[in-house]
Amino acid sequence: MKIEDLKGKTAGVCVSGGLDSKTICCVLQDAGVKVKAFSANVGQPDEKDINDIKAKMAPTGVDTTIVDVTAEMAEICFETVKCQAMYDGGYWNSTGIARAVTVQALLPAMKAAGCTVLVHGATGRGNDQMRFERYTNVLDPQFSVYAPWRDEELLKRFPGRTQMVDFLAQRGITAFVGTKKKYSTDANLAGLSHEAEDLESMETSMRIVKPTMGVWPEEAPDSVEKIVLTFEKGRCTAVNGKRMTPYEVMLEANKIGGRNGVGMKHALENRIIGTKSRGVYEAPGMEVLSWGLKYIYEAVMDRRSTLLFQQLSKLVADQIYDGRWFDPATRAARAAIQVWADKATAEVTLGLYKGNIFFESLKGPEASIYNEADSSMEASDGLNPHSSQGFAEIQSVEAKMLAKSGQIEA
Description:
The protein has helices spanning about 20-30, 50-55, 70-80, 95-110, 130-140, 150-155, 160-170, 245-260, 285-300, 305-320, 330-340, 370-375, 390-405; strands at about 10-15, 35-40, 65-70, 115-120, 145, 185-190, 190-195, 225-230, 235-240, 240-245, 265-270, 275-280, 345-355, 355-365. With about 400 residues, the chain is of the alpha/beta class. The protein folds into two domains: about 5-75 and about 85-170, 3-Layer(aba) Sandwich (Rossmann fold); about 185-365, Argininosuccinate synthetase, chain A, domain 2, CATH 3.90.1260.10. α5 (about 130-140) links the parallel β4 (about 115-120) and β5 (about 145). The radius of gyration is 25 Å and the shape is elongated.
């Protein structure tokens, strides 16, 4: 879709209040497009007041609607933790999680305002363009999508930020190029992703990032902080004995994990479009909650369940990354994982220390298949050690035949 295709239509522009957002809204208005701006409150910790976006967009003459999705963000965080769905390199794909929630919430708001086109400012080199487009098509096939930074006309007109500043200045809108940033950041309740600029060089340390949700490990306290997490059917319902809503749990876990330097990850990930992308991620709350649930899962899963769970977990992680949260495969995988989550009711205590998470204790779950007596190396009423003799002999039959047949290479 090109900009001329939008003339006379009403477009809903996803905005952040920045230079790009202002430029896009003004350009569309000049092209004869009716423009309405929308933004989602996804619990971004780097935004002191979400309503500031309205004030930032006001000079463009466009009204901005803020949709609060903090509760929905907490829910998808809980679902992602339940699935232990970490992407490439083992990090929490906070941006991918947020896009599903954002589009699902903004589309109805845009439709109610008479919009028929969703406009996003994602780059034509990244993942978000795919997520915005796919979620729009899946959730409302009649809705169109316009990507300004894939439109050749706009790319020629605005090759850089200086041209945007000059364009806005001609309309009496003050904007600045600003000093060159070391990296760009996308934030929400689940965490922050930092990428681009200086981080694009593999010779640049990930430690140029200044954590927003916490601190680097060496700046964390010099003592272990214990945190008690109560899980009911795979969902954390209380922190340190205090019952909380999912949103409150995320805020508390983020705070406690962050101050102990937990959840800082580096990834050289595989993008949807086939390129590699480097990112530094912080997600203290997701990391803390996932380790608590991991210890419970270990107690209730047999070996084959663990293998299947790991496969399903990876599938869900890939689906989130690819913008496929609402796909049938994702729903099926989540439903299967719920089989184990239903048994994950217990109280787990963790020790947090300078970026590390230690196991302290586990009370429950009732469905645990761990038996201390059977596992004991001491004399007990558990498994009779002589019972293993027959099993060992059966295994040796196969081992000897593999050796004799020449199939074993030592």
